[in-house]
Specification:
The protein is α/β, with parallel strands linked by helices and 205 residues long. The protein has 6 helices and 9 strands.
Length: 205
Amino acid sequence: MVQRQIVARGVKNRRVLLAMRTLPRHLFVPEAYSDYAYDDCPLPIGFGQTISQPFMVAYMLEALFLTGSEHVMEVGTGSGYQTALLSMLADTVVSIERIAPLALRAERLLHELNISNARIMIGDGYNGFSAGAPFDAILVSAAPTFVPPILAGQLNEDGGRMILPMGDFGAQSLVRITRNGDDLMVEDLMEVAFVPMIQGLSDLE
């Protein structure tokens, strides 16, 4: 997976590649899809959500420029796969998931893997986690149509960066936002296709 899908498409960060070689992706997909866990495609994880294709996960992680000392927030825990990778690449991780069953399932799996520096919370990703701010990096795994101002405001003022897909489905771009004081620099990285970012908590149980 790493060599053919990720390295071959230009991802070079050694820490990202090592983390993805180390973490078993099949543990994070439903058993019915375990045979496809290492394929170059997103997979359903229930509740209308997916685990992103391995290349996209690696690309987004590399684009955050993590060195290991960062305090990171993830919006959209999903399966917990990206959360676990972030825990290997940063100092501390707070992950927010609006669908309670997904959050609880991911939390159990991270506990089974003895991951202790990642905290999963049930909440509205548009609100972030003000009590934990500022964050050195924020990774958003669903697509809003605009930059959520609360999330931008929770970035570290001295070079905090956020990676997120933006736009309506069929016309989305992956962007990197870097904060310096009150200024936000926005970079377009590539065209993408993510599930929409929905406001509020889910009533799914």
